Amino acid sequence: MTITDYKAKQDSCKFKKSDKNSLKLKPLEVIELVKESVSIEEMLDFYFGIDLSAAKGRKTKFICCPFHSEKTPSFAVTPSLNKFQCFGCGCKGDSITLVSLQKNVKQTRAAYIIAEDFKLLGNADQQLKNKISLTVEDKQELQEFFNAERTTFNFLSDFKRMIDEIIKNRIQSEKDMELYGYLYHWSFKINSLMDLLIGTENTSGEQRVDNFFYIQHWIESKAYPMLSSKLERLI
After folding, report:
1. For 111-167, how does the pLDDT look when each residue is reduced to its tens digit (9 = 90+)?
2. Global pTM?
3. Three-class SS state of 163
């Protein structure tokens, strides 16, 4: 992905600093919402293009593992429990773990991604909005802020994934570490910024907006120059 691609994605989340009523489900509430609303069959189909109905087995279905190459299916899925386990590579967990592994993010982040992809937060947010009085203008501004946060989080997630791939493919020796070791710092920094966007349960609305604009400034002053000057040559 080029610097132009990243700027186009990031430009879609411009937001004026005026929202003081930022609301969001707590992480544990999002996790529970996802588990109650989306089955493991739906996630396999949506994120991996795997139709579980064609797989062998009754209560437990066996398919080829989506996380490693194999000819004999060793990936067991139990739809009634929303659980999976691969007897080849050893990965196992629930439906959220699937997306966590695929996108290389924590469980909480995976839950937010799923909730957004399956349009779960719209209805859930309404329950929060009913707790306070909001005008039509407030609601529109609130939704714009949610959209801006989500777009920024996705941008950072893509950026981190690109850096982690470069680290994995480029750093093979001590010399490589001298040349590219700084990328570990970048990966850690991006991870901390993503945590600011997710860990909002005990954050005031004003602080949450401040965090958002701090991240926007970091992206424009640090991420864009880094992408255009160094990373594009390493991909």
Report:
1. 888 988 888 876 555 544 444 334 445 667 777 788 888 888 988 998 898 888 888
2. 0.46
3. helix
Are the C-beta atoms of residues 163 and 186 closer than 8 Å to each other? yes
Separation CA 133–CA 81 (nearest Å): 40
Q: Both tokens of residue 15? A: 């937001």
- Cα 2 from Cα 72, distance rounded (Å): 38
Sign of the alpha-carbon dihedral angle for 106, 111, 112, 116 = positive
Euclidean distance between CA atoms 201 and 43, whole angstroms? 26
Complete edge-to-edge strand list for the sheet that includes strand 61-63: 61-63, 75-78, 83-86, 92-94
At 81, which amino acid appears? L
Q: What is the pLDDT of residues 154-200, one digit of tens each?
A: 889 988 988 888 888 888 888 888 887 888 899 999 999 998 888 76
